[in-house]
Specification:
By secondary structure, this protein is mainly α. The chain has one domain (2-88). It is 91% helix and 0% strand. It is built from 3 helices and no strands. It has helices at 2-54, 58-61, 63-88. Helix 1 packs antiparallel against helix 3 (63-88). It is rod-shaped. It starts with a helix and ends with a helix.
Amino acid sequence: MPDGKNALQDLLETLTQDSEELKVQIHLAEIEAREEFQRLSGKLDELTTQFEPVKDVIADSADGVVSALTLAAKEMQDSFSRITESLKGTR
């Protein structure tokens, strides 16, 4: 029986260590996600600012601008989705 007690104690110590390591990893993932979100928020502001002066001329001749802004917006959407998915794993 003492061997079983030592094995259980070792297992509990390993689980405790794993738990602490996961807490650190989750904390770091949250920091990384927050930083990425802040970076993307700035880009969204910039994208919105760039859109304002051309929104009235878009219908006339700005197909290239629309394509570029659409591509940038889709890339942002993908980044937001990646952040959301990474945060789902931290809950």
